[in-house]
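To close the chapter, one final illustration. This time we ask the reader to focus less on the individual chains and more on the assembly as a whole: which components sit near each other, and how the overall shape emerges from the parts.
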Amino acid sequence: MTADSDSENYIEPTSRAPVKVFDCKNCDLGSLVEEIASYEDRVQKIIDYVLSGPFKGKTHDELAKFVDTFGARPSGTFDLEKSIDYMIDLTRKEGLNDIVTEELEVPRWERGIETLTMFEPRKKKMDILGLGESVKTPLNGLTAEVVVISNFTHLEDTPDEEIKGKIVLYVPIFTTYVETVIYRKEGAAKASAKGAVASLVRSIAPFSINSPHTGSQNYSDGVEPIPAAAITLEDADMITRLYNRGEKVKVNLIMYSTLETAVSRNTLIDLKGYKDPEKLVIVSGHIDSWDVGQGAMDDGGGMFISWAVPVILRRLKLTPRRTIRTIFWTAEELGFYGAHSYKKSHKSESHNINYIMESDEGTFAPLGLVANGNRKTRCIVAEVLKLFQSINASTLVEDDSPGSDISIFTSNGIPGASLHNDNAKYFWFHHTEGDTMNVETPENLDLCTAFWTAVAYIIADLSVDIPR
Amino acid sequence: MTADSDSENYIEPTSRAPVKVFDCKNCDLGSLVEEIASYEDRVQKIIDYVLSGPFKGKTHDELAKFVDTFGARPSGTFDLEKSIDYMIDLTRKEGLNDIVTEELEVPRWERGIETLTMFEPRKKKMDILGLGESVKTPLNGLTAEVVVISNFTHLEDTPDEEIKGKIVLYVPIFTTYVETVIYRKEGAAKASAKGAVASLVRSIAPFSINSPHTGSQNYSDGVEPIPAAAITLEDADMITRLYNRGEKVKVNLIMYSTLETAVSRNTLIDLKGYKDPEKLVIVSGHIDSWDVGQGAMDDGGGMFISWAVPVILRRLKLTPRRTIRTIFWTAEELGFYGAHSYKKSHKSESHNINYIMESDEGTFAPLGLVANGNRKTRCIVAEVLKLFQSINASTLVEDDSPGSDISIFTSNGIPGASLHNDNAKYFWFHHTEGDTMNVETPENLDLCTAFWTAVAYIIADLSVDIPR
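The assembled structure is written out below.
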């Protein structure tokens, strides 16, 4: 999951409290209540098949094999394209052949050597991660004094001459992701406007074992782009203490990177509806990842539970009325490139998107959905979620534009939902070397897979469309 | 805290469950009960002075200043010696001048470049930490296949020809520290005996954000010393999965290091007893640290709460009957060098050690003491701990040789105790780059300081000696 301005409305238990839980007390769905209840047997069949049947542990095993084989899959790399081919093969082996890929141009930002060394008041090497699309430093790096900035008001209130020629270090203390990620995204542009030569940010995370967190950032037009990197909570806090004691903190920052463009692909897998095949229920996750870690959590898990939906339905011979389309978005991390491309090229059929779902905030224990839509829409979805009380996944959280990739659809009124899950530790691992299979468990992935598959099936099979 | 065989008996909530809590129901201490109860006012005075008086936050502030100034303080380095001088100055400023240092020879093992790169079945750079006193590799490193070993029985059962020329990777899953640290300590020696060219170990930790944990290890006589390093839980588990799928895993390991000897010092600070000054109650922690992180938790916190004991008692004019001696042990991490040296050079007065205390397992919220001694001894200590119910630090856990440095005294029957504290996350940070001030809080350090000071004072002031 990235944090583009487009997606700042997604729900994260660790970032936005309290979440607004939908109250379905006065929903009046008439005969639809009975119709939805009639799916109970099929829901149980799917749950049994995944939790204790032939699919038990498969999501975890396939995800592990996938990330072990390819590792990180940054936008624009050969590894990402190979991983897309692999997923297509894996899908075909399941007898699903209605697969297309759609090409688009994506950025290829390649991280080179990155070092940050404090040499005053003492020498200390620090672990850093450059931010996405950051420019590089001169070969010998930038050597400058650090000025510690608490927030943008503090920056504004600081005279330009105190910033000029220095390296700005933003030290926002994590409260919510939405509140603090602005320093990662906009920090370099704002620091440069005040004359800084580079911009550092305390990693956007509530917990750390000296683990820096990368992420995207945006330069502003008319402002000199300056090198931008994240440092660990520990180093940021140490520098802050030194600075507050009146010590002069001097560092050398070396960053190397290249930025090019390349071609990548969205992948679309259709399980055709038996009645209204032109109508779509989309389930999705992104296949690209940051270049650190393995992208197991962000977003291998979300991609694999979306992959499992048509696979399981086909195996169980549960063909819904509408088409289920699994999409593996590409190049999400640098700004929803795949989703934007899909939206543009499928504009003429956007009215056919009946419901759009995405899992990109972890595949911990599922709790329900984060959904948009009018009251009727939410009533229907809440009624569907009642079928998941046995696995404790019946909560509907309200959000006007849920999701990351799909937020560019849901924010325009297309009804949809992202997976609501027990992801309180999501930002411990997000965009770090720690985003690996060790974050995932077979049990949680099975629960997510069963839940995701059954929800998508019911919505795709209901006698009525989801209202916009 | 290190993990020498000498110290394997210390208590850690995360490593040894359930701990044995002492039951003081049938203690018969006679008039001593009343005597101990009479300390209540003085205990409260100390607690107030630290929790809400002039010492509030001071332990944290001084510890932060100390670790920010010196960073890591590995055995044999100039930084360690400068940090010892600093502590002596800091102590003199408090009007405590009864300070001596005692020299000893210590190892100086210096870590150089360390890289581990998997290149089959795919390329991946891995974060590693060489283990203490490991030999280096050839300049271009060792390139070999990895053989994954679950435990020493598995190693024994594997034919030598399957180990010869390969790199052994031990993958013990953390249960308790004591149970799993043997693979870090003895793994290289045992692997070498079977013909391995290097030894890797899954870090001895229950949790990771791609964080490797270093630590000491021992070669065996008559066995070729081979390079030894720890890798992260994440990488160990990935290699294990690849290996179990039948993939050939090949890596290149480069390690450089030097091993010399140097001179360091134990530091002894005495607050002389008014009645029996030759009798000692020792409070202690070690001043050296590993070369990664800042040694804030291991063992800056323990050292500072021990430093605070004579400082606070002097400020409050609470002079006990016996002498309180604060000791900053040196070179603990590579094998209790400071403690062994002290034991040897103070052999003739060892009968004068009335009680010996050490904090080297974290300074999280204090819970009580981990203590050895006969029943009478434990009854007395348990009675003292009753005075700390208001801060929830009244638990006495039984252990025959508590402590790390002090275990070489307590295991020989000298009565003593280590700080029992809420350290369930201790091994998340232990011997990593994450051992920083971010693990510590002012509140917990204040609680530890107050508790440590008051306990030491009472024991040093009682009318009776602690029985051996």
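Residues 2-17 of chain A have pLDDT under 50 and may be disordered. The first strand of chain A starts at residue 99 and ends at 120. With these observations in hand, you are ready for the problems at the end of the chapter.
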